[in-house]
Amino acid sequence: MNRRADEFTFIANGVFNALLCLTATILNSITIQAIRRTSSLPKPLKAFHLSLAVSDLCVGLIVHPLYVARMIAMSQNSTTVIQNTNIAFAVTSNFLFYASFLSVLALTVDRFLAITFHLRYQEIVTHNRAIYVVILLFLVSAFLSATAGLWQITRALYIHEVCEILCLIIIAILYWKIYLTVRRHRKEIQVRQVREQNGRERANATRRFKLAGSTFCVYLVFVVCYLPNICINIVWINSGLSKTIYPFKCYVWTLVLLNSSLNPLIYCWKMRDIRQSVIDILLVCYNYFGR
Q: Is the Cα dihedral 215, 221, 223, 225 positive or negative?
């Protein structure tokens, strides 16, 4: 009976990830083009959004197929294939998940600087510096994922979880500071008389607040998708990965991978300019293929 339950777990996760492979690849491909075409986004913010979207696209192109192959191999109890797919899946998934965490952190820091130091934001955060940060975060992700293979699995998992939890805590603190700053700015705007100049200033502030709200939604969905996996890994570190826990681990991994399909939907829902760019791209595709 347990074997049948395990087979159902592997097959169900394999089928669902095969579908997610398509959604992550298609949605993020469209999102990347939409972000590139959205001229109203600040260039540094655009670079960080592209960094996250590229990570999500690679999850759809690489990690999802490897996970499907892993589930198929486990359902057939093919030891050799399981070992090979486990290595490939561990290396690529760790690299891309580190890149995703650091991209969300970069987005948060960018919004924190834009709201807290809005008068000096363009001086502090330039497009070139944003590009350097994106390159650096991918190099750091590659280093962390490469060196993880040199450690014992429990130690590597411990370091992995420490990095994830640390990133989530830093992001939460930054958003709390953003919230306090936004609340203070709104009180100041309400107190001052609304003149033409202050009206433009209020419009700019409102736009900064909305962009911060959009990235906060990305963070919230990120936490929902990743937190169960962090909890399972903590149990794994302390008591080992038992046969009872492992089926839950499969579903939790699927939830983590689902995040790559949800981020493009958040962009379209919360960011009007990107949503309009996506609609324009879809209309062009419809007119081209619909003939």
A: negative
SS3 string, the chain, reads CHHHHHHHHHHHHHHHHHHHHHHHHHHHHHHHHHHHHCCCCCHHHHHHHHHHHHHHHHHHHHHHHHHHHHHHHHHCCCHHHHHHHHHHHHHHHHHHHHHHHHHHHHHHHHHHHHHHCCCCHHHHCCHHHHHHHHHHHHHHHHHHHHHHCCCCHHHHHHHHHHHHHHHHHHHHHHHHHHHHHHHHHHHHHHHCCCCHHHHHHHHHHHHHHHHHHHHHHHHHHHHHHHHHHHHHHHHHHHHCCCCCCHHHHHHHHHHHHHHHHHHHHHHHHHCHHHHHHHHHHHHHHHHHHCC
Please choose, from the candidates 164, 46, 176, 174, the residue with its C-alpha nearest in 3D space to the C-alpha of residue 101: 164
**Owner of token pair 């709104």:** 186
Q: How much is the average pLDDT of 25-29?
A: 94
Q: Which two tokens stand for residue 33?
A: 């083009």
Q: What is the pLDDT of residues 233-271, one digit of tens each?
A: 888 777 766 667 777 888 999 999 999 999 999 888 888
- Specify the amino acid at residue 272: R
How many other CB atoms sit within 10 Å of the CB of residue 22?
12
Q: Categorize the per-residue pLDDT at 290 as very low, low, confident or very high, splitting at 50, 70 and 90.
A: low
C-alpha to C-alpha distance for 102 and 164, rounded to whole angstroms: 9
